Description:
With 155 residues, this protein is mainly alpha-helical.
Amino acid sequence: MNHTLLTSIQQADGRYLSDLELRPLAQFVASFDTRFKTYIRLREDSEALVLSTLRQLMVGSYREAVQVHGAKCQRDMLYTLECIAKAILLDDPDGFREEYVMWMQNITRALHKQDSAIAAYRHLQIEILAALPETSAQLVNSYLDKLIQAFSDGL
């Protein structure tokens, strides 16, 4: 569950939660079906999405980078989608940013691969828009937007 909800529950020791404190739980429950279906789609389709993305990068100006680093790129993109799927299921964008985006940003900057990472994840966003239902695609791409922003400008 997300941090806001867990914090409210932990601070409610010895009392009932107020309506305001219950709001995150109501939002969590209301959006669960969409988040669950998105998680399942990512679990089932992530490999095809990543492979299609890499094929698109081969056609463009990143052909050499994909030939040299394709296996690592595939591994990283699959791991990214797995982390996004977990964050979506738990409704935890803050945890995703703190635990994954910062880590990935540091590695990408250390290797000076921001430009190719931005291009790869933007292509992945296009594949996601084409393959997933609109609501799911928007949800996944909002997480990818945070990652791309971190590559571009930092946190």
